[in-house]
Amino acid sequence: MEMSESLQRAGIQTAVFHRGSLPANRWDPELSQMMLEELKANGVEFVPNAETAAIEEGKDFPLCAVTNQGKWEADLILFAVGVRPNVELARAMGLAIGPTGAIAVNPRQQTAKDNVYAAGDCCETFHRVSRRQVNIPLGDIANKQGRVAGRNIGGRPLDFPGIVGAQSFRLFNLEAAATGIDEKEAIAGNFSPVSTLVWGNALAGSMGQQRIGLKLIADKSSGKLLGAQAVGFSGAVSRINALSVALWSEMNIDEIGYLDLAYSPPYGGAWDIIHNAAQALRRAI
Amino acid sequence: MEMSESLQRAGIQTAVFHRGSLPANRWDPELSQMMLEELKANGVEFVPNAETAAIEEGKDFPLCAVTNQGKWEADLILFAVGVRPNVELARAMGLAIGPTGAIAVNPRQQTAKDNVYAAGDCCETFHRVSRRQVNIPLGDIANKQGRVAGRNIGGRPLDFPGIVGAQSFRLFNLEAAATGIDEKEAIAGNFSPVSTLVWGNALAGSMGQQRIGLKLIADKSSGKLLGAQAVGFSGAVSRINALSVALWSEMNIDEIGYLDLAYSPPYGGAWDIIHNAAQALRRAI
Fold first, then answer.
1. Measured between CB atoms, which of A128, A175, A267 is closest to B237?
2. Does the pLDDT value for residue B4 go beyond 90?
3. DSSP B224
4. B245 — contact with chain A (CB < 8 Å)?
5. B30 lies in the same domain as B128
6. Quick check: B6 contacting A, CB < 8 Å?
7. Predicted confidence (pLDDT) per residue in B176-201, tens digit
8. Average pLDDT value for chain B
């Protein structure tokens, strides 16, 4: 998405082809709709439900993408095909590979062989919310695991405490962030998810309007937060970071509804959208 | 401070007289220094160590402030004299007044008389970090206490869970935020405070520079976080909100050093300043 922005700034006409119907599958359709509007507002064409069959030579431009939605000619075509861990070396060494397809490690980042450590995108990570091993290739996780592996190799033992699935990106002027698990993952993890999506202002009313949407997902029986998603022109990452710490501590939505946050009008209302969403979710249970 | 900004925008020459040597006593001098620079950068004169003896009639302007630092003439003089709870009615009713001078309440916002409730700036609040009753007149606390009182009066019992002392304000383009307690309050609370102040970038290096300073205070014996202060052109409130949730959950700095936050370059580095400060503090203990 940051690539699109650079292209746009350079005055390059940009189209995004997406297999789904809306951008950013992880986010609720109502939140992704805001991303779609931001793409359009910045002159980016979004082609949903697109499957690319071939890249051919073009007539007016060097390249032509042949898709189920038609043909598009272009100077440059970028593919985002996802990430899969390269475990060739690990397999050759006889290391255990986990069910995610990534290298299995213990909290010390040790593989099945005592003196072989793995860290980063190639290995599994303990997800503190789903209580499962996952493979989430993000740079901050890789950095932390690398330090943990180094500490253990260097004789100053340290356990990697796991992750909660926090993530963010910027789309032009829009902040998108999410943490924890969604309803589908919650059901797979034997939770009973219940969710709410509220729209609000990232500022106090007296400071103007900065629209923000926040979705919270909680477990019906325990009331514990399971996940959160936010999109807005400001404050989305801030809210998701606070909620990531709440997830880390296994907070329930009653506590979250009364959390003490650093209120002042330029940064939120006296009742923050976090409070409002948690209390709306409590009423929904 | 927001008043100064409005005056400045209107082209009004502004001077701030302060009893201390730097703005915003709650923040570490190194962080307040950044506030002082922001005031100066926006054409506001800051007069430190000022005590006002009298307001007289001026020669060129209607008013003249007579201070120990000299005389200043002005059209308008604003005094910020602090806030003290008005407990006159409470005293007349025979309600208990706490050691802070505010009305004593239990977690249901009940005063010493069963059928009399108090909420907001006039009453005490339980501070989850210092484990003491405090009086912090902030609108978000007042709102929450009001709802708790209403719930209890209405027969749907609810306890107010207390606060961690989160607070923020904007000074022109600068974000200032703090949470928890400082070294002085920590010593008064029988903790053994140890602190560190780190400077960093609120963005990843590839996205430019947004200077941010973060001070963390922890208890030497338990390693638990006691407080945090941040100042920066972006991301300060976000960090303090995440750390407020960490304080709420009584997290120690080892956990904070490896928290999973929503990393992406426009909003921070792979090692966030929160991680760097927590790890620096661990090394200092």
1. A267
2. no
3. B
4. yes
5. no
6. no
7. 999 999 999 999 999 999 999 999 98
8. 94
* DSSP letter assigned to residue B113: S
Q: Are residue A278 and residue A199 in the same domain, yes or no?
A: yes
The answer to whether the Cβ–Cβ distance between A248 and B255 falls below 8 Å is yes
Contact B260 A165 (CB under 8 A): yes
Q: Does residue A111 lie in a domain region?
A: yes
* Residues in Cβ contact with A252 at an 8 Å cutoff, skipping those fewer than 6 apart: A218, A222, A223, A224, A225
Give the CATH number of the domain where residue B272 resides: 3.50.50.60
Same domain membership, residue B70 and residue B92: no
- Give the end of a domain, one of B153, B175, B206: B153
Residues in chain B within 8 Å Cβ distance of A138: 263
Cα separation values, B240 from A124, A136, A149, A267, Å: 30, 26, 29, 12
Say whether both A37 and A67 belong to one domain: yes
What is the spatial distance between Cα B50 and Cα B22, in angstroms, rounded to a whole number? 11
Stretch 246-265 of chain A: residues touching chain B, C-beta under 8 Å: 246, 248-249, 251, 255, 258-265
Report A:117-136 residues touching B (Cβ under 8 A). Answer: 128
The pTM (predicted TM-score) of the whole model is 0.94
Per residue in B37-63, pLDDT tens? 999 999 999 999 999 999 999 999 999
ipTM of the complex: 0.94
Whether B271 contacts chain A with CB within 8 A: yes
Number of A:B CB contacts under 8 A?
153
- Tell me the C-alpha distance between A165 and A226, whole Å: 11
In a domain? residue B184: yes
Q: Is residue A46 part of a domain?
A: yes
- Residue B34's domain comprises 2-74
- Check whether B6 has a pLDDT greater than 70: no
pLDDT digits (tens, 9 = 90+) for A89-138: 999 999 999 999 999 999 999 999 989 999 999 999 999 999 999 999 99
DSSP annotation of A283 reads H
Residue A155 amino acid letter: G
